[in-house]
Specification:
Helix content is 39%, strand content 15%. It contains 6 helices and 5 strands. The protein has a 5-stranded mixed β-sheet with strand order 1-2-5-4-3, with helices on both faces. The radius of gyration is 17 Å and the shape is globular. 29% of the residues are buried.
Length: 203
């Protein structure tokens, strides 16, 4: 999964692929991990109908406590997943998410796993699994961000245009790091817009 980002048109098979992977992840999640109840949801651009995206599923597994890395690595290895390390010491989203404005950074520790889709005719090239604490503000944000893009056509079009622009800018990059950081400003504006919508809906 190295190299710069490649954006492809939305594929209607992505949700079904996400469901299959979600079941695989939860079925293989070790009960002995001491992580409490594990839940898996489809997040990221492939979870937004009509939005162009990198052809990798982003799945979020939320837990009460992060399991031991070795325990989860052993459990998910048969699925073809491996612990991601990042290209740089400060690669965003690998061991810590970029804290959301006003959030408690203590809850943004995470585990990141990646794997390739083995089926030659699959809708995606691979999967990225974000294991986050249930208390993480980032875990809540990615769900809200996904739902906001699903419901706001203009925001979705603006985000797609930005992604395509950044993908071209970082096409020769060795990793996704700068591409990921460059989207943060849009996400901050999105959070302000989502907070404003919530405030307007309050009685």
């Amino acid at each position: 999964m190295g190299g710069g980002p490649r954006i492809v048109e939305y594929d209607e098979r992505w949700p079904a692929s996400a469901e299959i992977w979600s079941r695989r992840l939860i079925d293989a999640f070790p009960e002995s991990a001491g992580a409490g109840r594990a839940e898996c949801v489809h997040v990221g651009s492939t979870a937004v109908p009509g939005l162009a995206a990198k052809p990798f599923l982003d799945l979020q597994v939320t837990v009460d406590a992060l399991p031991a890395e070795a325990t989860l690595t052993a459990a998910w290895a048969p699925l073809g997943l491996a612990r991601a390390r990042g290209s740089r010491p400060d690669s965003p989203g690998v061991s810590f998410d970029i804290p959301r404005p006003g959030s408690d950074p203590r809850f943004h520790e995470k585990l990141l796993f990646v794997g390739e889709e083995p089926a030659a005719d699959a809708a995606v090239e691979g999967v990225i699994v974000h294991v986050r604490l249930r208390e993480s503000a980032f875990a809540a944000f990615v769900l809200s961000f996904r739902d906001w893009l699903r419901g706001d056509h203009e925001a979705r079009a603006e985000y797609e245009a930005l992604k395509r622009e950044l993908a071209e800018e970082y096409a020769s990059a060795a990793d996704y790091d700068d591409y990921t950081r460059a989207k943060t400003a849009f996400m901050d504006r999105a959070q302000a817009a989502m907070d404003g919508e919530t405030a307007r809906r309050r009685p």
